[in-house]
Automatic annotation (TrEMBL):
Family: Belongs to the peptidase S45 family.
CDD domains tied to this protein: Ntn_PGA_like
Keywords: Hydrolase, Membrane, Transmembrane, Transmembrane helix, Zymogen
Region (Disordered): 490-520
InterPro entries: Ntn_hydrolases_N, Pen/GL7ACA/AHL_acylase, Penicillin_amidase_A-knob, Penicillin_amidase_dom1, Penicillin_amidase_N_B-knob, S45
Molecular function terms, GO-annotated: hydrolase activity
Spans traversing the lipid bilayer: 7-30
Species this protein is from: Paracoccus broussonetiae
EC number: 3.5.1.-
Pfam families with a match to the protein in the record: Penicil_amidase
Protein name: Penicillin acylase family protein
Enzyme kind, highest EC tier: hydrolase
Keyword Ribosomal protein: no
Length: 818
């Protein structure tokens, strides 16, 4: 017995020692991939010595003798900090995620291949101007130089993720950067998703279904079924499980994911210091690391500083010595879905306007980690590539014997958008910026500009030219065989969308239509956030950097302010309070809280939680009997619809009546029932004491690591979870997941914020949502995230002396002697 005990002790000790050794070995190899920012490298591809000065926050300031060497060093710096992210973004654009993630990434790869993101990127190489082509080439050489250094120095494969997701990292090519820009464009637009939703609404409720998403003043449209007389549809019920949000971020970006943002500026005569001010905060999905990366480049045209995306050698939002700029996804209607009829008995032909036509067809092979390679047949019509019916619920709107093709402004080669963005970086004034932006094809962007003499705004991007006889004007999928439905070509943005000298010295955009702007689509951002932004910036005659920061971090919900008095108009009580502990008393207490609330979506308050749960439950009760299972797929609130229903605009109050019941329900009854149901749900989650509820307990940002975020133990290391203020309609927009288990999980937000002060440029401030490094063991992995959550910033200067004074490391690149 003693001998057995001794052996058990020895075995236990041995297992503990082995576990510790294994953990220590994993730690050793993981930390080897942390770059040494004080190293000196002898490299080929540069003409003169280069310095990469890293500030306290790990922001690289790049100093070189020429532009080519600057872009070389930017590529190397991006790769040092975000190599895995860059490779994943490239794979997402190429349709090669399944090679590292396995079969779960096949749908994403299939869609990327069908959209032709990488094919069109390669076809666009020769469309770039010589300066941009040189920048892309130098950037690629910088990335590849770091990959070589990783291999030569056995530096942990460059990122710890590669120990769990083995990958032979191929060298970077100029086309890779163009492909990531294509992926960004495909991810920024949601027009395809909105068209499908409109069709599903029309099928579910032909008489009034489209009211849910109708824009103010939108002209009537035929029902979707009437476009295909005699055809049978699969129906609106979802055939597959709702896709997981985190799984959809496997490539950091995904087509139709959606993006928005804010941009505004004030001319010098509207600022305290007499120089123009500009604020910008593009809003994307929250990931760890975040999508954006801060950098400073010292170009021949002058210093440039601001936000970049690893893989793209451009400062997308930032400033140089004389000009500041900020980008906001424009949300114009740049996509149309066409329903194509397949010839009965011959799946290789489809119906054209003059008879049956052959599909353009080719096959590609998708390699799958741990599984068999998959061969996919890619088909294309005159209207664009055929999309698989399993994507984005396309199957629910397809008539039997039909397929869906997509026309998209970014779905072609000869795209000069990268050259335009490089030109924007080097422009010295608003006029020069506007000329450069004329070359943007996709993504469509509202670009806010400020220089020493004023401010302006430019819509950049190609727009489809539609025939006036088009059956839906791009609002719903339409028959592809009618010539009047097809695009007549692409046009640049109309002159009316450029304003380089605004009256009043203020410009602002949230992606919503602007006064006097020509119609650029009916599915754009709603007016609520824009009205709040204009109210705040117009309420002051003179602005300062601090006032711009306050506006950028404004968390008041204009939707709550607009809807609560309307929805609760007949619910506010004047009688004696009900007994404590009863549902009636809880409702009265909730209404009392909301009656004295100013709409501030603070993480520390219960009112935002009550309001958000009430409005979600209210919308669901209004539409569910009409829409059936489709109601489960409504992941956002439609405040304009609720406003129309409660004002009974054009008889919209009929939505409140439950068709299956004999009595005629009123909107007041539905509002009361919805509030009671919301309070019941929140009580089950947080207890009966309303005063103890906190919005931040429900509204938590989860910055997901696309590769490691679902691994049980590692998720606690690589994912960042934090309570956040704000909501879907606040200027500091923190949008929701929209479905169970927590519909109010914060999944998108302003991943980059910048406020540029041209009166004192070195006082300009910036922040990103996580940290500069993509390495989970780096102190710079999440060191900026708490500042971001609190609405705080860091300063970024173009003064070389200030950069060096705050340096925590200087990387020296020396050319190899011949």
């Amino acid at each position: 017995m003693v001998t057995l005990f001794r052996w058990l002790v020895r075995l236990t000790v041995g297992l503990i020692v082995a576990a510790v050794a294994l953990i220590g070995l994993a730690w050793y190899f993981a930390v080897r991939s942390l770059p040494d920012y004080n190293a000196t490298y002898e490299v080929a591809g540069i003409a003169a010595p280069v310095e990469i000065v890293r500030t306290t926050e790990d922001v690289p300031h790049i100093f070189a003798a020429n532009d080519r060497d600057v872009f070389f060093a930017l590529g190397l710096a991006h790769a040092q900090d975000r190599l895995f992210q860059m490779n994943v973004l490239r794979r997402a654009a190429q349709g090669r995620l399944a090679e590292i993630y396995g079969a779960g990434a096949l749908p994403a790869d299939d869609l990327a291949r069908r959209l032709g993101l990488y094919r069109n990127a390669r076809a666009s190489i020769q469309a770039q101007d010589p300066k941009t082509l040189a920048a892309l080439t130098a950037y690629a050489e910088g990335v590849n130089t770091w990959i070589q250094q990783v291999n030569l120095g056995a530096m942990g494969r460059g990122a710890p993720e590669y120990f769990l997701f083995p990958d032979d990292i191929s060298y970077w090519e100029p086309a890779d950067s163009l492909a990531i820009l294509k992926l960004l464009a495909a991810s920024s637009t949601v027009q395809l998703r909105r068209e499908i939703l409109r069709a599903r609404l029309s099928l579910a409720a032909p008489e009034r279904g489209q009211e849910l998403v109708a824009a103010p003043g939108e002209p009537p449209m035929p029902t979707y079924a009437s476009l295909f007389p005699g055809e049978h549809f699969a129906g609106v019920e979802r055939k597959t499980a709702k896709p997981d949000w985190a799984a959809g971020l496997a490539g950091y970006l995904a087509p139709a994911l959606g993006a928005t943002g804010n941009g505004w500026a004030a001319a010098g005569n509207r600022t305290a210091a007499g120089g123009a001010l500009l604020a910008n905060d593009p809003q994307f999905a929250l990931t760890a690391p975040g999508l954006w990366y801060l950098a400073r480049l010292e170009l021949d045209s002058g210093g440039v500083i601001g936000g970049t995306i690893p893989g793209i050698p451009v400062v997308l939002s930032g400033r140089n010595t004389h000009l500041a700029w900020g980008i906001t996804p424009a949300q114009v209607d740049d996509q149309d879905l066409f329903i194509e009829e397949v010839q009965p008995g011959d799946p290789n032909r489809y119906r054209g306007d003059a008879g049956w036509v052959d599909f353009k067809t080719h096959t590609e092979t998708i390699r799958v980690r741990g599984g068999s390679s998959q061969t996919v047949t890619l088909r294309e019509t005159e209207n664009g590539p055929i999309l698989p019916p399993s994507h984005l619920d396309i199957s629910t709107i397809l008539p039997a014997g039909h397929v869906a093709a997509l026309s998209w402004t970014g779905g072609r080669g000869q795209d000069t958008s990268m050259s335009a963005l490089v030109g924007l970086m080097e422009a010295q004034d608003r006029d020069g910026a506007a000329r450069a932006l004329a070359g943007v094809i996709a993504p469509a962007l509202s670009v806010t500009l400020a220089d020493d003499k004023g401010v302006g705004q430019v819509l950049a991007g190609a727009l489809p030219r539609r025939d006036p006889a088009n059956q839906t004007q791009g609002r719903m999928p339409q028959p592809g065989w009618h010539a009047q439905n097809r695009w007549q070509g692409l046009d640049p943005a109309p002159p009316a969308t450029t304003d380089l000298d605004p009256q009043g010295g203020i410009v602002a955009t949230t992606g919503a239509p602007l006064p006097g702007e020509p119609n650029l689509g009916f599915d754009r951002a709603g007016p609520y956030r824009m009205s709040r932004l204009r109210h705040l910036i117009d309420s002051r005659e003179i602005h300062s950097r601090e006032s711009f920061i306050a506006v950028q971090n404004d968390i008041v919900s204009p939707v709550a302010r607009a809807l609560l008095p309307l929805v609760g108009a007949n619910l506010w009580f004047t009688d004696e309070p009900a007994p404590r502990g009863t549902p009636e008393r809880q409702r009265q207490d909730a209404l009392a809280l909301l009656a004295n609330w100013d709409g501030t979506m603070s993480e520390h308050l219960p009112e935002p939680m009550i309001q958000a749960a009430w409005m979600r439950e209210l919308q669901d009760r209004i539409v569910r009997d009409e829409l059936g299972p489709l109601a489960d797929d409504l992941n956002e609130l439609y405040p304009a619809f609720i406003d129309r229903v409660f004002r009974n605009t054009n008889g919209a109050a009929v939505w409140c009546d439950i068709r299956q019941s004999t009595p005629v329900e009123t909107c007041t009854q539905i509002a009361r029932q919805a509030l009671d149901a919301a309070l019941l749900d929140l009580t089950a989650r947080f207890g009966p004491d309303l005063q103890s509820w906190r919005w931040g307990d429900l509204h938590r940002a989860r910055h997901v690591h696309p590769a490691l975020g679902d691994l049980r133990i590692l998720s606690y290391i690589v994912n960042l979870v934090q309570p956040t203020s704000g909501g879907e309609s606040s200027i500091a927009r923190m949008a929701y997941l929209g479905h169970a288990p927590n519909p109010w999980q914060n999944v998108t937000g302003p991943v980059f914020r910048g406020v540029y002060d041209l009166a004192d440029p070195d006082s300009s401030v910036f922040i990103i949502s996580t940290g500069q490094s993509g390495h989970p063991l780096s102190r710079h992995y999440d060191d900026l995230s708490e500042l971001w959550r609190r609405g705080e910033y860091i300063r970024m200067s173009l003064d070389p002396d200030l950069a060096r004074a705050a340096a925590t490391g200087i990387t020296h690149l020396n050319p190899i002697s011949p």
